[in-house]
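Chapter summary example.
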Amino acid sequence: MAYPQTGSNLSGTISTGLSTQIVVKVDNKPVGAIQSLTINQKRNIQRVKEVGLDGILELVPNQPAEYDITVDRIVFDKIRMTEAFQRGFINIKSQLVPFDIDIIDNTAGGDGIVHTLKRCWFSAYSPKYTANDFIISQSATILCEDIGTTLGTSDKFVAQGGIKPGYSTGGSSREQDADIGKRRGSMDELGIYKITDAAFRE
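The structure predicted for these 202 residues follows.
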């Protein structure tokens, strides 16, 4: 049943997302011994102002979205961080070709939800050696050109909710296309000024 106040599903099964259901792959090979992995997404938004207005006129994206990953991993089976990501080097200055990362969430079963980070480069690599912890851990920051999220290996759209009444993109599928990785973004939509959200503009 759904809890009346929040709409959360209350059942006899586990509905909470678990890290035990996450698999990270590069070149279709799992990356093991990861302690934590964070996907960071950033989009700069410009506050547009005008003389004679005591407030913000409008918020407008003024730069492309940016993506990076921060990873913490222990050295396991003599494999260093860069080697674990299927790279044949230790130091990041050696990287010549970018790589893709697939983060697979199998919580819902089936083919899972796949987040694909495309054309990635190591931008920071920090091996750490400490006397009070014998386990060698390493961290890295990886920059990526683009991200897409799909159901399994298909190009099916993942999001199931969040679209409110009165919201219209004028028949465009740019949001969905950008979300699954078919487009780099949605702000180049023709006729973007005609796309309105009646509820937002009230």
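To summarize the output: Strands lie at 22-26, 29-30, 34-42, 45-48, 58-61, 66-74, 99-105, 113-128, 137-151.
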